[in-house]
């Protein structure tokens, strides 16, 4: 990399030179127009090295380690082979044998660390092969920098600090965010931050700088966010007299750039956030951008184009590489509540461009989110009310996952604690160890800013001057379940609030102590009073916690002490950090720590897959479940019976001996007993007052949710004091694989239809029983010639006299004997399966969208594009032999059917427009709201017996297992690296197979 690109680093051949300065202020004032940072002088402070002389340095005491015993000597080590295969063809895409890990580390955690975090070319002596090397590389860098910048009183304290960090990392007590593992201690730039916020002004130079800066961040595998509200709207004039393009037009260029760069990263895919203020004149255009593109995806998919995530034709769709959010104000939300109007203002002089009704705009926002999950909301006044540095500038933007909210052109490095490591066997919480662990982690995180490099000079200057940190946690859902507390309960929320308050209170107390040793952050002098005000707000919120139970009471009592002590020290010393905590997704690092749940999330499901040494996997019930049952007082015999029931059914309903009042303890994000959307919102509201930043979390909503439900969630988020909120409705994204709507097997049915339903299901079981039904000697058949990507072939399909497909033969022209034999064997296998009752739709669902060469254009007017020969064959068979209803569920239509759908949609839209026009001129008639009828209770034990007798679908990940249990497709993309179905992690997704994420951590 060229000198000067990464700020503050002088390069040497071995990459070992340190940053020339740390937190020594800026070289001069920086002026940025608009609502962001106005100027950031260094406030006349001196460097960290000189400031450290004012204090005596930290005295570090042992918490986890034993004097005279190295942490590595306390564990049993073993050698393993890590071999990752390609999901498409079984070929090996990663192999490193003989890696070294502690015996109690799971196979999954070891695989992820080996493939993601070990540095050096595979197969060379320089390649890391042991967890010891990885931890030593990182911890040694932190210790050296801590000594260099005066953090420790003596070398002995530095050694204890290093041993404590090593022990905690070795035993999965906490983890730094991924960029630390990627970069620290290597010859690469020492980037430690995962979250970045950029700024863009109303000038072409600034817009082009935005493209460049974003690209540099993406190249490093991190994500960034930006608020485009300073760019003038398409309703305003340029200085030349022409009309401005507006921010939405410039989003296209940034989206294309991100789409190109994200695929070339060596570490992980990047992510981005785009924000627009609600008073921007182009707000309505911004709101509907992604919803319109989803309609395009649907039309192109139905026309036969490959619109799967990562498909060949998905690149024609715009705005898909960013999360979109609207920044709403209290004024706007109050206008929504009262039915009032709201002004849209020009960007140049603030004049009113248009006045609109607030409610219709709020409905448009909710409608778009209902259709495609974007935009989310960010609550501007709440965010800035908790801002510690308002004298420097307003908070206008966030990182892609919305947990980091601070100044423009800044960054934040993250670390997360594993809460389950602090849960005692008797159900108590290790309060003292938790406090000491937070102290150590915060100290390390602050040290990292001293040696860190940054992608731009502006980001480096702001981060060194304001030293934003983001300590957080994972495994909250597992902790609550193991403690016998329902996630959606007052008891669960009070314990979560108390732990979060204790974490942030301790972090700020240590930050104030560090300020006395190495100095307050550079921008503290001008922001001293607002910073103190926010600290008092946190402490006051802590006093409002109503703990339920002895554990929550003890935690909240210690939190009160930490806030009181920290504020006293801060009044004297100031604080070292302008921000201390966030709640990140903890995707890859959560898997590295063997966490059952990520961030603030509840458990995804009660069953999951566990990888085994030597390959393979097994389905297990989460280990949190038996621990929770024991906490609730169940004897071992009942625990075993309940666990067996969960393993068989995937839920606790009707589990033998389990009391119905305990069902709620085992409620999960998805499944038979899923947590209601408002339960997620209330948990966020419980912990938000104790987080410096915000919370990365998406509120999942069922497919049946209405636009009104989305409005309620967004409005309650504002009323309950959240800083940011996003929703996701099942099956709302048609551009993602396996997200096409399917009929819910568990849907409620009327009592009158039960006998017919049972009869129909029983008949299907008999029809598909494994008894071969041979074709008659003389049977109808047809042969189709086809061409896929230039490769020609012939498909012969034979059917039973009653028109059921029973035989397939496939012949490819110009082929060798090996391929001919493979095709013949494949045809025989499919034919035997069909004759034994395997439904054709099962083959169609498995083989469509399979991608390999040859692929591309076909000569079939009904299937214009094919991802492979297999994709074309089974689409053609579906069109020839499946009824319309089944094909509609699979998203396979003829050309005439697609044309008819488009015509019908256009006619409906035209009629709707006419009705809307008529309604706007007609008097409004108010009617009492009709009572909503709830779903009929699940009837007839016979239905459950028959459903249980049906063969279980093949599953390969926890998300796919969940789909098999609840009978529908979960909206999660396939991993770009290994092809495994990903699972939610905050507002992002994480792959359980290789650890790849779509966002932070």
Automatic annotation (TrEMBL):
<dbReference type="InterPro" id="IPR050862">
    <property type="entry name" value="RdRp_reductase_class-2"/>
</dbReference>
<feature type="domain" description="TSCPD">
    <location>
        <begin position="776"/>
        <end position="879"/>
    </location>
</feature>
<keyword id="KW-0846">Cobalamin</keyword>
<dbReference type="InterPro" id="IPR013678">
    <property type="entry name" value="RNR_2_N"/>
</dbReference>
<keyword id="KW-0170">Cobalt</keyword>
<protein>
    <recommendedName>
        <fullName>Vitamin B12-dependent ribonucleotide reductase</fullName>
        <ecNumber>1.17.4.1</ecNumber>
    </recommendedName>
</protein>
<dbReference type="InterPro" id="IPR024434">
    <property type="entry name" value="TSCPD_dom"/>
</dbReference>
<keyword id="KW-0237">DNA synthesis</keyword>
<dbReference type="Pfam" id="PF08471">
    <property type="entry name" value="Ribonuc_red_2_N"/>
</dbReference>
<keyword id="KW-1015">Disulfide bond</keyword>
<comment type="function">
    <text>Catalyzes the reduction of ribonucleotides to deoxyribonucleotides. May function to provide a pool of deoxyribonucleotide precursors for DNA repair during oxygen limitation and/or for immediate growth after restoration of oxygen.</text>
</comment>
<dbReference type="InterPro" id="IPR013344">
    <property type="entry name" value="RNR_NrdJ/NrdZ"/>
</dbReference>
<feature type="region of interest" description="Disordered">
    <location>
        <begin position="33"/>
        <end position="52"/>
    </location>
</feature>
<dbReference type="Pfam" id="PF12637">
    <property type="entry name" value="TSCPD"/>
</dbReference>
<keyword id="KW-0547">Nucleotide-binding</keyword>
<feature type="domain" description="Ribonucleotide reductase large subunit C-terminal">
    <location>
        <begin position="193"/>
        <end position="728"/>
    </location>
</feature>
<comment type="similarity">
    <text>Belongs to the ribonucleoside diphosphate reductase class-2 family.</text>
</comment>
<dbReference type="InterPro" id="IPR000788">
    <property type="entry name" value="RNR_lg_C"/>
</dbReference>
<keyword id="KW-0560">Oxidoreductase</keyword>
<dbReference type="Pfam" id="PF02867">
    <property type="entry name" value="Ribonuc_red_lgC"/>
</dbReference>
<feature type="domain" description="Ribonucleotide reductase class II vitamin B12-dependent N-terminal">
    <location>
        <begin position="82"/>
        <end position="172"/>
    </location>
</feature>
